[in-house]
Amino acid sequence: MSRAKTPTELGPDALLPHNTRRSLPIALLRAREAVMGHFRPMLARHEITEQQWRVIRILAESGKVDASEMADKAFILAPSLTRIIRSLEERGLITKHKDADDGRRVLLEIAPAGMRVIADVGPESRAIYDQLEARYGHERVEVLLDMLDELATLGD
Amino acid sequence: MSRAKTPTELGPDALLPHNTRRSLPIALLRAREAVMGHFRPMLARHEITEQQWRVIRILAESGKVDASEMADKAFILAPSLTRIIRSLEERGLITKHKDADDGRRVLLEIAPAGMRVIADVGPESRAIYDQLEARYGHERVEVLLDMLDELATLGD
DNA sequence: GCTTATTAATTAACACGTTAACAATATGGC
DNA sequence: GCCATATTGTTAACGTGTTAATTAATAAGC
User: Fold this and answer.
1) pLDDT (0 to 100) of residue B9
2) What's the structural domain count of chain B?
3) Which of A30, A49, B65, B110 suits a disulfide with B69, CB 3.0-4.6 Å?
4) What residues in B contact A94, CB-CB < 8 Å?
């Protein structure tokens, strides 16, 4: 058996995890950025960020929800959500008040101005998504969503 | 549970793009976060971020590259890359100098300390990735990578 | 050769992601 | 009721994402 090689004697390829071009983290990042690239200009025209859009959209779907539930549904970490809520409230798109039953909880609700954003952005967003889905293939989108969900829940 | 009372007379479902739980942007985000959740603690132990790891890994793979090429390969925007390069150079993991042929370009090269990071992190990273791939299924990872790549290049 | 346009990189400004620490409120055991 | 503990949300600090503006250097047009 030959003597052990020190790290500096090894070619770097032997140490690398695998080809950078075929790695899940980067592939997921690239796919996500490509998808969001279709939505971002439209959202920017409405002066709203992707995360702000997720929040008001969930409020329109689900009515009153507290911050924890929102963080879970919108997949936004609590500190980010705190800032987003502050911004949306200052802009009058949502309202916020303490839960009477549990003083720790903050209940969120969409405001009329927020509903107008839903009415403005919703159809445009749907149109972009539908076009994307049509180009990729409806069936394949379903398959991809299933595969992504399975990847996301591997460790449960 | 959500029996949504709608804030206005207009049902929001008519305006919403589609079900939030089955949307590509969020599914991609969740999948990516789940995957990175497996790597992040290890990277944190080595006091390195995901993006910094991508940069030094590409330098180990490709030798000298300029900033534009790095931005392309690591999928990092130029302003972020400027900050990452500054940080990595201050920590002595990479070196940086102007291109003699084109004074605008900045050439990057991995430093010995950076190679030690490669030697330390690389095997651990590979082990995590291999385990992940084994649990998800090698074949399915390949299929997923192909589908993600196609999604990322839809508009080309 | 000189002006103009283009390109590479940086800076600025703002929003979000991430971890850790913290304050306020609820809960459970005694 | 009182205390230790757990939970909810916020703040802090730092790194990254994003767009726009800026600087430095090269390339193109004439």
Assistant:
1) 45
2) 1
3) B65
4) none
A40 touches strand D (CB under 7 A): yes
Note whether B8 and A45 are within 8 A (CB). no
B131 in any annotated domain: no
Domain for residue A5, yes or no?
no
Cα–Cα distance for residue pair A33/B108, rounded to 1 Å? 25
Burial of B72 (0-12, 13-18, 19+ CB in 10 A): exposed
Task: Give the structural domain span for A96.
Answer: 24-151
DSSP for residue A155: T
Q: List, for chain A, all residue ranges whose pLDDT scores fall below the cut of 50.
A: 1-13, 15
- Does at least one atom of strand C sit less than 7 Å from the CB of A25? no
Give the helix ranges, DSSP H, for chain A. 24-45, 50-62, 67-74, 78-90, 112-136, 138-152
ipTM over 0.90: no
In-domain check, residue A9: no
Using the CA of B37, give the nucleotide whose C1' is nearest.
C18
Q: How far is the CA of A99 from the C1' of C29 (A)?
A: 26
Supply the mean pLDDT for chain B: 89
Nearest alpha-carbon partner for B50 in A26, A151, A17, A51: A26
Contact B125, A17 (CB under 8 A): yes
DSSP string, A40-77: HHHHHHTT--HHHHHHHHHHHHHSSEEHHHHHHHHT--
Give yes or no for CB of B25 within 7 Å of strand D. no
**Sheet with B65-66, side-by-side order of all strands:** B65-66, B106-110, B94-98
Q: Which of B77, B147, B149 would best serve as a mutation to test chain A binding (most A beta carbons within 10 A)?
A: B147
3-state helix, strand, coil in chain B (%, to 5): 65, 10, 25
* Residues across chain A: 156
CATH code (residue B73): 1.10.10.10
